[in-house]
From TrEMBL:
GO terms for biological process: proteolysis. One of its GO terms (cellular component) is cytoplasm. This is Leucyl aminopeptidase. Belongs to the peptidase M17 family. The keyword Thylakoid does not apply. PROSITE patterns: CYTOSOL_AP (PS00631). The lineage of its organism: Bacteria, Pseudomonadati, Pseudomonadota, Alphaproteobacteria, Rhodobacterales. GO terms for molecular function: manganese ion binding; metalloaminopeptidase activity. Keywords: Aminopeptidase, Hydrolase, Manganese, Protease.
Length: 459
């Protein structure tokens, strides 16, 4: 999978993008194609596509349906829906694609070439696209490769994506972009990051904290990604129906690594730090238990009322470390709560932010980048729900209400000095295929964050 735009040559075909109500206008402008297009029943609906032959019978052009404004509001990467029907030719956009949509549709076209083929299958051969005029082609290629990295990491089963494998992926990224990396394990991890150690100690695959740094000058950004490589639920064992997708519980780590790759590949003028607590939440005789009280790196004590609420524990120690340097911005990403899925479903990435300007910039960037976000509140009146009395904090408040909010409030307790903190409670998975988005691992939030960074950090 190259995720690169095609170079124009003599064999490049013109592609006309045609809306549903523009078919007749297209045929008026191209009367030589009328009989062929009408016989094929082309309607201009999203996903409709047709090669147009010349007098010799070989294709001389193609048309792709673009639906209506109403159907496009319901479909990200609408043009990508037609790619599979355009064969193996290369195309240049000849007409019909709005300039404002060119970047989104170009990215969608490249992402149509993604497939997870590590264990079976072949890489799809999709139609090539010459970069539309006016877009930053190099940037879009970077975004496509970065998203493919995120998808690959999430799609890889836990048998081949444990803490050490996640570390290897981070090391490969660091080597590619001349970043430094340190990994904390063993007795040092137990002493300095006690909650990361407690969650991961029951697994034979040792827990660790991955710490990557890149950049020598500029504002400081720290990304923290939940790297729970598989989550059994611990002693509060998940039922089988809930455990089936837990290979994706390191989706936060996968998303921050994809975002970090984009930042480094594009050479943004900032100092980047990536922290990933990588663990497997397993069951054994030394697993942490319900009613245990853990002391975090920050010194706050945490009562364990559910061992299946482990993601916030490992993130808390990593956030405490991040906060000690008071970077300009900390962003955490995690497949943290089922409550977030109940609230907004799998398609939206909910986020929490106390800064209204930052929140507005993220939401606007999400819309512009076809990477939709939805702000949820750090709701201060719910703080009491995470205070059990016997310890400073409760990792799983009783009652079952506002679970995503109380988890976010829990994490915020570990960021006390940094001026701006944003938390993403993502799903990291497409439950069904869609244009440019295969079923499986998903990037949620990185493109929006990347677009919002210049304003947020003054780049």
């Amino acid at each position: 999978m190259s995720f690169r735009f095609a170079e124009p040559d003599a064999d490049t075909l013109p592609l006309h993008v045609v809306e549903s109500d523009g078919v007749e206008g297209f045929l008026d402008a191209h009367p030589e194609a009328r009989a062929w297009v009408e016989a094929a029943g082309f309607t201009g609906a999203i996903g409709d596509a047709l090669l147009i032959p010349g007098t010799a019978g070989t294709p001389v052009a193609a048309i792709a349906g673009y639906g209506t404004a109403a159907t496009r509001r319901r479909t990200r990467f609408a043009l990508a829906a037609a790619v599979a029907r355009l064969g193996r030719h290369s195309y240049r956009i000849a007409s019909g694609l709005p300039e404002s949509a060119a970047e989104e549709e170009a990215l969608g076209w490249l992402l149509s070439g993604y497939a997870f083929t590590r264990y079976a299958g072949t890489t799809p051969v999709v139609a090539g696209l010459v970069a539309p005029e006016g877009i930053d082609a190099a940037r879009i290629e970077v975004l496509a490769v970065s998203e493919a990295l995120t998808r690959d990491l999430i799609n890889t089963p836990a048998s081949d994506m444990g803490p050490a494998d996640l570390e290897a992926a981070a090391r490969e990224l660091a080597q590619t972009y001349s970043a430094s990396i340190e990994v904390t394990t063993g007795e040092t991890l137990e002493a300095e990051f006690p909650m990361i150690h407690a969650v991961g100690r029951a697994s034979p695959r040792a827990p660790r904290l991955i710490d990557l740094r890149w950049g020598e000058a500029g504002p400081t950004l720290t990304l923290v990604g939940k790297g729970v490589c598989f989550d059994t639920g611990g002693l509060n064992l998940k039922p089988g129906s809930s455990m089936g997708l837990m290979k994706k519980d390191m989706g936060g780590a996968a998303n921050v690594l994809g975002l970090a790759r984009s930042i480094m590949a594009l050479g943004l003028p900032l100092r980047l730090r990536v922290l990933i607590p990588a663990v497997e939440n397993s069951v054994s005789g030394n697993a942490f238990r319900p009613q245990d009280i853990l002391t975090s790196r920050k010194g706050l004590t945490v009562e364990i009322n559910n061992t299946d609420a482990e993601g916030r524990l490992v993130l808390a120690d990593a956030l405490a470390l991040a906060d000690e340097e008071t970077p300009d911005l900390i962003i955490s990403m995690a497949t943290l709560t089922g409550a977030a899925r109940v609230a907004v479903g799998p398609d939206l990435a909910p986020f929490y932010c106390d800064d209204d300007g930052m929140a507005a910039a993220l939401q606007a960037a999400g819309s512009a980048q076809a990477d939709p976000l939805w702000r949820l509140p750090f709701w201060d009146p719910y703080e009491a729900k995470i205070e059990p009395g016997i310890a400073d904090l409760d990792n799983a408040p009783a009652g079952g209400m506002a679970g995503s909010i109380t988890a976010a409030l829990f994490l915020r307790r570990f960021v006390t000095d940094t001026p701006n903190y944003v938390h993403f409670d993502i799903y990291g998975w497409n439950p069904s295929p869609a244009p440019a988005r295969t079923k499986g691992g998903a990037a949620q939030g990185p493109r929006a964050i990347l677009a919002a960074l210049p304003g947020a950090l003054g780049l």
